[in-house]
Specification:
This protein has 11 helices and 19 strands. The protein has 391 residues and is of the alpha+beta class. The protein folds into 3 domains: 237 residues, no CATH class; 81 residues, Transcriptional regulatory protein pf0864 domain like (Alpha-Beta Plaits, 2-Layer Sandwich), CATH 3.30.70.1380; 52 residues, no CATH class. A hairpin with a 2-residue loop joins strand 17 and strand 18.
């Protein structure tokens, strides 16, 4: 339903559907068909994202209806996929959130969790598709209403479970997500959908003050009487707010002071933090007690990634402790394009008033072409800006 609402809100539904399909195809899974169909639910026209799976491989201990995949397998698929960084990061975070919840419910390490229905092909399609849809629409802040939940029980790979399912209950409790009860035995809140909202939503509550540019409706499979089975998505710009007066995205800034770590280890630690999912990582010189020179290593992260990044920071530096501060961040809306520099692809980040070529891509092209790096950077950024009027 989330995926359908994103397609429905697109100015060009065909274009966004194709972008989502391309992102999913790059993951390299098979055994599925994805269609976007116009339907009615309770009298409301909506888009139904219909994922049909025909999985060909089975594990010997499988449940007969879904492939069992370890979280590590899914993350490896995402790491190898030809996805924009923003799409990959969002999808990785959603599956990490799912693994943490399932691991807590079943009493196993998240890395050892085998995702059943949430790890099957249809969920991979959903999660990557949602991430790609958000990226395509340029949605940089997401606010959700309280999550509706039914009652009774639901069928799962583990048998009959209470509704909401234990993994769902765990996520809403840990993230303090508001919920609203609906008198129905339908499974209104699935682990996949709740993990997506718990990870990608910047907040839960009333509709923010905004100028609405587009509305989308994503349909569920069922069409029960008395209530339209749809997810409503409103897309727009904050109304009357400057870039920093509007609510930002909550983030955590981790920091550790060290005075016995070499420069090589400091540089490696920054790289390891970025590879683990930090939004940014940096080093500040400081003077510690007794006049000793030292450094503070910082990492800016989503709350969902706090434990993983703290583990990396402590392991790499050997620090005896760290601290964390809750901050707000206002990332500027940007897109990523790939340009051709004499036969060599270079990714370029494009935002209002700014273009910036990806350093690693430009370095590789400069080395092969035998040109100065600054020349390749200038060529790539110039080509990315050619059709822009705001740069």
């Amino acid at each position: 339903m989330l995926l359908g609402s994103l397609v429905d809100a697109g100015a060009d539904r065909q274009e966004i559907a194709e972008a989502i399909a391309a992102a999913i195809a790059s993951v390299g899974i098979d055994g599925y068909a994805l269609t976007f169909e116009r339907v009615q639910r309770g009298g409301i026209a909506a888009t139904w994202a219909n994922v049909v799976t025909h999985e060909s491989r089975r594990r010997p201990h499988g449940d007969g209806g879904h492939v069992h995949r370890r979280v590590s397998e899914i993350l490896a698929l995402l790491a190898a996929a030809d996805l924009p960084d923003g799409v990959r990061t969002k999808a990785e975070r959603v599956f990490t959130t799912l693994a943490a919840a399932e691991g807590a419910v079943h009493g196993v390490n998240p890395d050892d969790v085998e995702l059943h229905e949430v790890g099957a092909v249809d969920a991979i399609v959903d999660v990557v598709g949602i991430a790609a849809g958000l990226e395509h629409l340029g949605i940089d802040r997401l606010v959700a209403s309280p999550i509706a939940m039914g009652h009774g029980s639901v069928q799962s790979a583990h048998g009959r479970l209470p509704s909401p399912p234990p993994a769902v209950a765990r996520m809403v409790a840990e993230r303090q997500i508001p919920v609203v009860g609906i008198d129905t035995t339908m499974e209104l809140a699935t682990p996949t959908g709740v993990a997506a909202l718990a990870t990608l939503a910047d907040g839960f509550g009333p509709l923010p003050s905004m100028t609405v540019d587009a509305v989308g409706y994503g349909a569920g499979s069922a069409d029960p009487p008395g209530r339209p089975n749809v997810v409503q998505l409103l897309v727009g710009e904050p109304a009357g707010l400057s870039a920093t007066s509007r609510p930002g995205r909550t983030a955590i800034e981790l920091a550790a002071n060290v005075d016995d770590v070499t420069g090589e280890v400091l540089a490696h630690t920054v790289a390891a933090l970025l590879a683990t999912g930090a939004h940014d990582a940096w080093i500040s010189p400081i003077v510690m007690k007794k006049g000793r020179p030292g450094h503070t290593i910082h990492a800016l992260a989503d709350p969902a990634d706090l434990d993983r990044l703290a583990t990396v920071l402590l392991a790499e530096t050997g620090s005896l402790g760290l601290r964390a501060t809750t901050v707000e961040r206002w990332p500027q809306q940007r897109t990523e394009v790939t340009v051709d520099v004499d036969g060599h692809p270079v990714r370029v980040k494009v935002a209002a008033g700014r273009v910036k070529a990806e350093h690693d891509d430009a370095t590789a092209a400069a080395r092969i072409l035998g040109r100065p790096l600054r020349t390749v950077l200038r060529q790539a950024e110039s080509r990315a800006a050619e059709n822009r009027t705001d740069i």
